[in-house]
Specification:
globular; 10 strands; two-stranded parallel sheet; 11 helices; four-stranded antiparallel sheet
Length: about 300
């Protein structure tokens, strides 16, 4: 067995031990196919007010600009599918935001994995990325065979669906590379048909500026009134396109204690949300991704949902 193959197996075994759902590896090189697609998406203003999407265009497409002399992109998936969901009498919160902010949870695991690589293999330089730097996570995960990008533009995996986070380590170590998988969306259009705001404008294209997640998390000003009545009770994020996807019938509950919600969260009713105080917000969303929208932002979203 070559050293490269040995290192690859070591890394994948350790990733599993750390609780990652799966691990795929691809060669760190310019993302040729994604370049024109990203450019067109930006030119059509589908990023709305997410100005940061315009920054670092080259870095988004070329990992060697992020990590000098990088050779491999190690993509990792972490399941967040919950065992219990909110009461049906509630305003809705995207399932990924039930527990501790995933940035903290995953960053910690990635650091452990990088230290493991350095301890076992030697002087390896690399950086950990969790959705907070100019890295096209889904493109890398698809390239490394972890799934295909579905018509709703989320990564999909046959055995487990799409309720997982994607993260990566970019390292200056040569490894064995995985091959992409094939697309299994077929003729299905469930996600396109179900999107409350018609944000999926055509298969594999999402107009971010029409997405409920964008309005409830990214948009800092008032939500445009023409979308009144179209939010299907989502107050933070939206899972509709994932909930209706047939592949998510295979989702299994995660086993990460940090992703368990605050005990009060699941039983809160619409009335509780309408009356939420800053103290309750801070208690229920301590270390949560919901802090991103802040108390005022969540209140704005709830007001928008009221009749």
């Amino acid at each position: 067995m070559s050293a490269k193959t040995q290192y690859t197996q070591l890394i994948k075994t350790e990733a599993k031990r750390l609780g990652f759902l799966s691990c795929g590896i691809s060669e760190a090189q310019f993302l040729e196919e994604e370049a024109p697609r990203l450019e067109k998406w930006l030119n059509n203003n589908m990023h709305g007010q997410m100005q940061y999407m315009e920054n670092h265009f080259d870095k988004r497409l070329n990992p060697t600009l992020l990590v000098e002399d990088s050779k491999s992109v190690i993509s990792l998936l972490l399941n967040y599918y919950p065992n219990h969901e909110q009461t049906t009498e509630s305003f809705k919160l995207s399932k990924y935001a039930y527990g501790t902010d995933y940035h903290f949870v995953i960053k910690d695991k990635l650091k452990q994995l990088l230290h493991f690589i350095q301890d076992e293999i030697g002087e390896v330089h690399g950086r950990a990325f969790v959705d907070s730097a100019p890295v096209l996570d889904k493109a890398w995960a698809a390239k490394s065979g972890l799934g295909w990008i579905g018509k709703h533009t989320n990564l999909l995996t046959q055995q487990v669906g799409s309720f997982y986070f994607i993260a990566e380590l970019i390292v200056d170590l040569e490894l064995d590379y995985d091959l992409p998988t094939t697309d299994h969306c077929g003729t299905c259009t469930a996600c396109i048909d179900a999107c409350p705001t018609q944000a999926i404008t055509e298969p594999y294209v999402v107009d971010g500026s029409k997405c409920i997640s964008y309005f409830t998390i990214e948009l800092k000003e008032n939500i445009p009134s023409e979308f009144k009545g179209q939010f299907d009770d989502w107050m933070f994020g939206c899972d509709v396109c994932q909930d209706v996807c047939p592949w998510n019938r295979f989702s299994k509950s995660h086993s990460e204690p940090l992703f368990h919600p605050h005990p009060e969260l699941l039983s809160m009713t619409k009335k509780d949300w309408e009356e939420i105080t800053k103290d309750t917000f801070n208690k229920v969303f301590k270390n949560s991704a919901v802090k991103r929208t802040k108390f005022e932002g969540l209140k704005r979203n709830i007001e928008f949902l009221k009749d």
